[in-house]
Amino acid sequence: MDNLFSFLGTIQDEYSQAGSQIEKKLYTDPLSALVTARTLAEKLLLEVYHVENISIARNQTHFERLQFLGSSGYLPDEIYQQWETIRKSGNRAAHGLNQESIEKALETHRALYDISSWFYESYGSIEFEAPAYRIPTAPPSIEKEEIQQWVKDTIQQVLQAELAKATTSATIQLQSGDQKSINSDHQSLSDYLVAKGCQLIDKRVKGGNLWVLGGWELNEILFPLKAQKIYFKYMPKGGKATKNETAWYLMGKHSSDPMVTINPI
User: Fold this and answer.
1) How many angstroms separate the CA atoms of 67 and 245, rounded?
2) Do 263 and 171 form a contact (C-beta atoms < 8 A)?
3) Three-state DSSP class for 182?
C-alpha cells in the first residue's frame, strides 16, 4: 500500500520517500519519525515561499519563516498550528529533551497529513482530492493499550469528517446548461453560494473573476463542487478585486453561472 503522502511525490520524490520513512518508524522509532516529519514540514514551508515568490532573509530560521507566513495571512490559523505542532515535537525529539511517545508521533503524523493536503490543495492540481486520513497499522509487537484511546478518538474524528464530506457530496450536484433532474431544486452558482452565507465579488462582466471572500474554512463549501469540474482556487492574499483580502476565485472562464442542483437526501 502506498504511504499516505505518496501524492507529494509529484512535487519531489524525496517528499514521498520521507513520508514512507515516517510511517515505517512511527511505532518502532517515534523519535526518528518526529525528526523526519519536522524536516519534511520545513521543506514544504520553503515550497510555499517559492510558489508565493517570497524572499527569504539571510539566516532566517524555520521558526521565523513560519511566524511570518502565519502573521501575514498566507497560512490559515489551523494549518499554522499544525505546523507548530510538528516543529515543537520535532525539536524536542532532535534534542532528546524527553522521550516522545508513540501517541505524539501519531499526533504529528496527522498534523503532517493536514499541512500536506492543504499545500497540495492550495498549490497543486485543481482536481486534487486529498486521500482520506488513515492511521498506519501497528506491528504485532506494539502494545496496543499505549495507543488504543488515541486511535479510538482519531478514528471517531476521521469518521465524522468523512460523514460530513459524504453528506455534502450527496446533497450537491452541479449541472451545466438546462439539464434537469427529477425531485431536484436548481440554483445558479452565485445564488447557491450566497445561500450558504458567502460574500461574493463578481468581476466577470469586466473580464475578471468571481471571488468568494473568506478563509480556508470555505473548502467545506467549495471543494465538493470539484465533482462537476467547478474549481475554486484559494488565494491567502486575495487580489486587486478583494483589496488583498483572503478569498477564493472561480477557475476558468464562465460567462454565466453553472446551475447548482440540490438533491434531497
Assistant:
1) 19
2) yes
3) coil
- Residue 223 CA, chain-centre distance (Å), reads 11
What pTM, to 2 d.p., does this model score? 0.72
Give the contacts of 148 (CB within 8 A, at least 6 positions apart).
Answer: none
Nearest to 110 by CA among 129, 72, 136, 147: 136
DSSP one-letter code for 140: T
Cell 463549501 belongs to which residue?
221
Query: What span, in angstroms and rounded, lies between the C-alpha atoms of 5 and 23?
Result: 9
Residues 64-97 have pLDDT tens digits of: 999 999 988 888 888 999 999 999 999 998 877 5
Chain centroid offset of residue 139 CA? 29
Measured distance CA(5)–CA(221) in Å, rounded: 24
Domain boundaries along the sequence of the chain: 6-142, 171-262
Nearest to 166 by CA among 174, 154, 158, 176: 158
Report H helices in 172-261: 189-195, 219-222
CATH topology assigned to domain 6-142? Four Helix Bundle (Hemerythrin (Met), subunit A) (1.20.120)
Polymer length of the chain: 265
Are 68 and 229 in contact, with CB atoms under 8 Å apart?
A: no
Query: From edge to edge, which strands make up the β-sheet containing 232-235?
Result: 199-202, 210-213, 247-250, 232-235
Q: What angle do CA 51, 69, 215 make, to 5 degrees?
A: 85
For 182-216, the pLDDT digits (tens) are 345 778 889 989 999 999 999 888 778 889 999 99
